[in-house]
Design brief:
The complex is a heterodimer of chains A (339) and B (264). With 339 residues, chain A is an alpha/beta fold. Chain A has 15 helices and eight strands. The chains are: A alpha/beta (339), B alpha/beta (264).
């Protein structure tokens, strides 16, 4: 990392540097930023080098396909735009109407919308909002990708295009707060400077509803749970306490902590566009280290509040062979069991 | 050296739940995504690489609706110089000969040396448009091409992929048609910056009249093929899930079934 930061001072080296495979190893966790005594942002250097490669068109096929899919279909998963709302099937979901003010406008992440394992996050949030009697709505068929991973993959121009399109889209649907399901969307939407409503993560909303007594849980969830801080939620947005408070409100749940938690949390390697890039490192995946650490704590569940963390940790738990003793659950998935 | 690359805008049916439309003569595409036909994408890349290595121009040619222009722009962003999109509802697109006639009409008076197109379209699987174009234009062709070498004396060498892993090497005198097999190269990404810049490149929209091609040569009445119907065959589902607590128990049940069926 240090080498990239120093070497990029030399304009003549930029092209050579942009071709190094290590450019694509960064997960965008921004631990380096949190720790940098000089307040530097080394990630920006890597993203700029990625941008240089993207503009030549010579990128890995997986990166190419993800970016083309966002451009053509509004999601990075090669899924048709027309099936983005299949997750709503069988549910009575309140859809935002143009010009009609709502308190909370939900923005569903592409990964949650399409991944059959994660659709439950959006479905359970609908149920939780109904239970809490909240004034909410979900965006209708115009919803499209926020551009978080597009920017991380170095396609700055496409990110700017999405930013403009989405800013206009949101201006048609007035809300006090926009609620994102993924910390990645949260981080991206916060970069939309002309967005009027405040953007929050769903754990912030749930914490408020629990604190105000609008949301209570009757059942019992007697399991030992360790919370994994998503980098895009914690390090990048300072949201550490809210997800923990939500978990603590669940009757019977025993919350334990990783040694490396909060600002020191270990990245799952799902950010920075890494869902579409193979890593060049031969070392053990950080998510696998995380799964082993969780096992040592004798946790039965790793709770996460990010779709990428759920996917990478779930794979890691299987890879290290702890599938029988331990599972990965999104916080809303746990809450869903009590509804 | 001018190369024409013919591309088709097709629905992606790889992961979709395919259903027929009300007419029974087509597929309901309302829940599909659309993109450039896979093999055509490789043809575009090959055409651009030939231009990069040997000079010349690349013209993109397609028959398709206005919505297909996005894929034409992407091909222009990758290195195409100009494009023609033919749109005319009279073209009987179910007949590859009609399609080949239309495409040939667009190129016949131009000074081209090569025509590249994908070896197969993902939607109709005909594998015949490129070959029929060669026949229509009276020029040689090679199909299923996995490697191209441009030779000096107005020739190309084409490596054709045959069954059983055999490669056949042929030399063709230009102009010629090559139908490109997937995997011949690694298609590049069309960056948004390039797509924006490509908006300045010429994209001509032409009808049959603009091409000087009488509709009665390529419409349904001209075709010797009649589309009867499309249907999705019923699946004879016969899958059995072997239930059991332990792997040993499941294995025992499986062994029993195999033994009973005379397989072990």
């Amino acid at each position: 990392m240090r080498r990239f930061v120093y070497d990029t001072y030399d304009q003549e080296m930029l092209e050579e540097l942009s071709r190094l495979p290590e450019v694509w190893d960064c997960t965008g966790c921004r631990t380096c930023e949190v720790r940098c005594p000089k307040g530097l942002k080394p990630v920006e250097v890597l993203y700029a080098l990625r941008n240089q490669m993207v503009e030549t068109g010579k990128v890995e096929p997986t990166v190419r396909d993800a970016l083309e899919s966002v451009f053509l279909e509004g999601n990075p998963w090669n899924k048709p735009r027309a099936t983005r709302f299949d997750w709503m099937e069988g549910l009575d979901v309140k859809i935002a109407q143009e010009g009609e003010q709502v308190e909370y406008l939900f923005y569903v992440c592409c990964t949650v919308a399409y991944d059959p394992k994660l659709q439950v996050v959006a479905q359970n949030l609908v149920k939780l909002m109904e239970k809490a009697g909240a004034n909410y709505a979900f965006l209708g068929e115009e919803e499209t990708c926020c551009g978080s991973e597009v920017e991380a993959l170095g396609e700055e121009e496409l990110f700017q295009e999405l930013l403009e399109e989405n800013t206009e889209l949101f201006s048609n649907y007035p809300a006090n707060k926009i609620v994102t399901l993924s910390p990645h969307c949260l981080t991206a939407l916060k970069k939309y400077q002309d967005l009027k409503p405040e953007v929050i993560h769903y754990t912030q909303l749930l914490e408020e509803l629990v604190r105000e007594g609008d949301l209570t849980f009757d059942g019992e969830y007697s399991k030992k749970v360790v919370f994994h801080d998503p980098c895009y939620l914690g390090k990048q947005n300072g949201i550490y306490e809210e997800p923990r408070q939500v978990l603590k409100s669940i009757p019977g749940l025993e919350l334990v902590e990783f040694n490396r938690s909060r600002e020191r949390s270990l990245c799952c390697e799902g950010g920075g566009g890494k869902m579409w890039v193979e890593t060049s490192s031969q070392q053990e995946r950080l998510a696998e280290t995380r799964a082993r650490d969780a096992r040592e704590l004798e946790a039965e569940v790793i709770a996460a509040a990010c779709p990428f963390c759920v996917l990478t940790l779930d794979d890691a738990v299987k890879a290290v062979g702890h599938e029988e003793e331990m599972k990965v659950q999104e916080i809303t998935e746990i809450l869903g069991e009590l509804l | 050296m001018k190369t024409f690359v013919c591309i088709k805008y097709v629905p992606d049916t790889s992961e979709a739940d395919v259903k027929l439309d009300e007419t029974g003569l087509g597929v309901d595409t309302s829940r599909f995504s659309f993109d450039i036909n896979e093999a055509d994408n490789y043809a575009v890349e090959e055409a651009v690489q030939i231009k990069e290595n040997h000079g010349g121009e690349v013209s993109v040619l397609s028959i398709g609706p206005q919505s297909s222009e996005v894929t034409i722009r992407m091909a222009l962003a990758k290195g195409g110089d100009d494009a023609i999109r033919v749109e005319d509802s009279r073209i009987f697109e179910h007949d590859p000969l009609a399609v080949a006639k239309v495409l040939s009409a667009a190129v016949k008076d131009q000074d081209y040396k090569l025509i590249l197109t994908g070896c197969m379209a993902n939607d109709d699987g005909n594998m015949s448009v490129g070959v029929a174009m060669a026949e229509e234009l009276g020029i040689p062709h090679a199909s299923m091409v996995k490697q191209v070498e441009v030779l000096d004396e107005g020739k190309v060498r084409a490596y054709r992929e045959l069954e059983g892993g055999v490669m056949e090497v042929v030399e063709l005198t230009l102009p010629a048609v090559l139908t490109i097999q997937t995997g011949i190269n690694e298609p590049r990404y069309a960056p948004i910056k390039g797509i924006r810049q490509a908006k300045k490149k010429e994209l001509k929209v032409m009808s049959l009249d603009d091409l000087g091609l009488p509709a009665e040569q390529v419409d349904e009445s001209a075709s010797k093929i009649k589309l009867n119907k499309m249907y999705i065959p019923e699946v004879e589902a016969k899958a059995e899930f072997i239930e059991g607590e332990e792997p040993e128990e499941k294995a025992e049940k499986l062994a029993e079934i195999l033994q009973k069926g005379g397989l072990a």
